[in-house]
Amino acid sequence: MKKGEEKKFTTVSIPTPLFQKIQDRIKGTGFTSVSSYVAYVLREVITEEPDEEQPFSKEDEERIKDRLRALGYLD
Amino acid sequence: MLSENERKRIFSGETEFHQLVRKEETLIDAANIAAGIFSPLEGFLRQDELASILNERRLPDDTPWTIPVLLDISENESANIMEGDECLVTDPQNNITALLRIEEKYRFNKKEIAEKVFGTNDPQHPGVARTLNLEDVFLGGDIDLVKEEESTYDRFKLSPAETRILFREKGWRTIVGFQTRNPPHLGHEWIQRTALTFADGVFINPLIGKKKKGDFKDELILESYDRLIKDFFLRERAVLSILRTDMKYAGPREAIHHAIMRKNFGCTHFIIGRDHAGVGSFYDPYAAQDMFDEFPDLGIVPMFFSSFFHCNKCGGIANEKTCPHGEEHHIKFSGTAIRESIEKGDCPQKELMREEIAEILLADKNPFVE
Ligand SMILES: [Zn+2]
């Protein structure tokens, strides 16, 4: 493999019965391994919610609203 | 954004910068990076990021990302450019677009890029051809926008910061992104209205970029959508704004990329059509749906629309799940049929396109790109 191409993986421990459950669960699905299933589920769970807090200063926000009004997007 | 000090440094002439004159596509990429449309990218790709995108369809930090954003230069140009240099990226008229801090100068097998992004190395594929034609050296590093090139359609152009504030001011919590490259026919409108039955707002986001001969002209796409929204949508429920970028025709990978950009604009949902970002018969029309399954962490929900048609018996728009009638009762939403009518100077069938939209297209002596 070329530089930068090697996959970076690490190991986590899960209880053996859970591992077996997952093995059963992924039979006949597109998942090729328990690891890929676990990665999928974790990614789904840890997806960040978009920040509710806007990173704008008051001035930026007013400038943006002015432009939106000037263009007719806002009243 | 560039600090005042840096701006002074650039314009005072005291510091010498390398100048890189770039094609429009690269300048637009720079503007999109700076505007946050390509967030979390803050510059052109470094080698490990490119490799990770090609192999994992993710950035090295595991964030979904499927389409390379590259700055390519020729061997000649690269001769006196070093890692650590700062470059001014300009257009051919020497207008400065961005300041690039070069972290990496590298070469990468272009055939490999093409094969992994487009799933083929067939030079008939426009994206493959374009990739193989890239220059041989790539520059990776963060950029700061100095000045974005002005365009004719700036009054229709909003940044993600602007759309996010706009959606919030409108009180929208669920926003469906709709991408288009055509004037609206009634099938498009039906999708948008269907989306509005559950979402708070629809964000109509035409791609403005390189066109093929025979495509409708950009100004007509905008004028016709402007008319549609003003006269046929509740002003409170639809926003029209352009996205300047070229189609790559990377099929499923590009569908993911399109969704990521719309997430950055603040959309919660994104409409994926049949053969989204496809070209010729290079992709299975529903391959995009499968690829979305790999990204439970995309942060935007794809909405898949299968084909639909006008059914004379149903008396409206239907699809194979809702209409029991035979094909002889169906009128397909064919872009070709619409184009042919307009070429002849006729209104398309009323089941396909509103008269008010057709009038706008017919009023132009030559509505197509030459
Ligand atoms: Zn029917």
What report would you give on this structure?
The complex is a heterodimer of chains A (75) and B (370). Chain A has 75 residues and is mainly alpha-helical. Helix content of chain A is 48%, strand content 0%. Chain A contains 3 helices and no strands. Chain A has helices at 16-25, 34-46, 58-70. With 370 residues, chain B is an alpha/beta fold. Chain B has 2 domains: 4-145, Roll (Sulfate adenylyltransferase); 154-362, Rossmann fold (3-Layer(aba) Sandwich). In chain B, helix 11 (287-292) links the parallel strand 12 (269-272) and strand 13 (301-304). Chain B is globular, with a radius of gyration of 22 Å. Chain B starts with a helix and ends in a 7-residue tail after the last helix. The mean pLDDT of chain B is 93. At the A-B interface, helix 2 and helix 3 of A face helix 3 and helix 7 of B. Zinc ion (ZN) is lined by residues 311, 313-314, 318, 323, 325, 329 of chain B.
The N- to C-terminal Cα distance of chain B equals 37 Å
Strand content bin of chain B: 15-25%
- Indicate the CATH architecture of the largest domain in chain B: 3-Layer(aba) Sandwich
**Total helical segments of chain B:** 13
* Main sheet attributes: strand count, strand direction, barrel closure of chain A: none
Sketch the topology of chain A as an H/E string, one letter per element: HHH
Shape of chain B: globular
Bound molecules: zinc ion
Overall mean confidence score, pLDDT of chain B: 93
Task: Tell me which oligomeric state these chains represent.
Answer: heterodimer
For the biggest sheet of chain B, the summary is: 7 strands, mixed
Query: Can you give the mean pLDDT of chain A?
Result: 84
Overall domain count of chain B: 2
Count of strand segments of chain B: 16
